[in-house]
Design goal:
With 119 residues, the chain is mainly beta. It contains no helices and 11 strands. A hairpin with a 6-residue loop joins β4 and β5.
Length: 119
């Protein structure tokens, strides 16, 4: 059974930081590209960041939504079957439910974790 379990969300003030984690089980983690998506109320789910499976323990290439470039960093630890999203300089418009995905032609999804940026 495939499970993706996100953690690390919460309430943070503008300008603050959060680190999201997604622990995967039931898949050969290193063979999957991993992504972070988010969905704000009334909006479509959008890609935030993705990291390829690559050939190293820390994965392959990365790509980011323009809105988070320079503020968010995606990384993975294949030894721990975990992908991370370091979020710095958070803005109110980053408020959303953040979802982890594992993709290899098809996608598995986590249940999501709420991130709220507010003073």
């Amino acid at each position: 059974q495939v499970q993706l379990v996100e953690s690390g969300g919460g309430l943070v003030q503008p300008g603050g930081s959060l680190r999201l984690s997604c622990a995967a089980s039931g898949i050969i983690f290193s063979s999957y590209a991993m992504g972070w998506y988010r969905q704000a109320p009334g909006k479509q789910r959008e890609l935030v960041a993705a990291i390829g499976s690559g050939g190293s323990t820390s994965g392959g290439s990365t790509n980011y939504a323009d809105s988070v470039k320079g503020r968010f960093t995606i990384s993975r630890d294949n030894a721990k079957n975990t992908v991370y999203l370091q979020m710095n300089s958070l803005k109110p418009e980053d408020t959303a439910v953040y979802y982890c995905s594992a993709e290899r032609g098809w996608a598995y999804w986590g249940q999501g974790t709420q991130v709220t940026v507010s003073s």
